[in-house]
């Protein structure tokens, strides 16, 4: 059985960029910073392409919901090996629930066998959209996947837990969120980026999918820089360490 795989991707500030807080503490100063494909979504794209290369998938579609600037990360997904790309163009950065509703509307139209997406994004770290998407679609879900195997009409997914791993059998269609341990994404080379410009790229209008205007339920009250860590010190013996743990760290 050859699967149709849809990958949800997000545009985030480059994880290597230095982010500062606005002087009025109303949020982060993001103007002028370089953006990139969310690293967790890179893993999802890589896994989808590997499924096609191994003969388990017939098509890999990349999908993003956001402003026109999201085209660049979709081009990266195409350069990594996705067959075509879809951009549901909406203003701003949708919150987890709004993003899940937007993605679900396109997924219902596309009818994929499996949806892959990063377990979280590196900008807000909510980690909520995959489970919300599965709930809206009423599909089975497997979160934080570190291994995916194709079975007959299902997937065997190893999920990362706080105390180890758990392998579950997930019937299709399903939503799978990917962890960094799943694979090592390939690099999108310049020739691949040039070839990606010739691949199908469709821009979707939310009104054509009967989506209502986005509603923002979350508000940033205040943003602060984490306090600087105090320097460490060397203790002369074990007895001093025990006293410090008891009286200062309060762990004993």
Concise account of the structure shown:
By secondary structure, this protein is of the alpha/beta class. Helix content is 26%, strand content 29%. The protein has one domain (3-224): 3-Layer(aba) Sandwich (Rossmann fold), CATH 3.40.50.
Helix content: 25-40%
What's the N-to-C terminus distance?
Answer: 57 Å
Average of pLDDT? 92
Order of helices and strands: EEEEEHEHEHEHEEEEHEH
CATH topology: Rossmann fold
The CATH top-level class label: Alpha Beta
Q: State the domain count.
A: 1
Strand order of the largest sheet: 11-10-9-12-8-1-6-7-13
Q: Tally of extended strands?
A: 13
Backbone structural class: alpha/beta
Query: What would you call the shape?
Result: globular
- Biggest pleated sheet: 9 strands, mixed
Strand content: 25-35%
Query: Which residues sit in consecutive blocks of at least 5 with pLDDT less than 50?
Result: none
Name the CATH superfamily assignment: HUPs
Number of helices: 6
User: Which value, in Å, is the CA radius of gyration?
Assistant: 21 Å
In the CATH classification, which architecture applies?
Answer: 3-Layer(aba) Sandwich
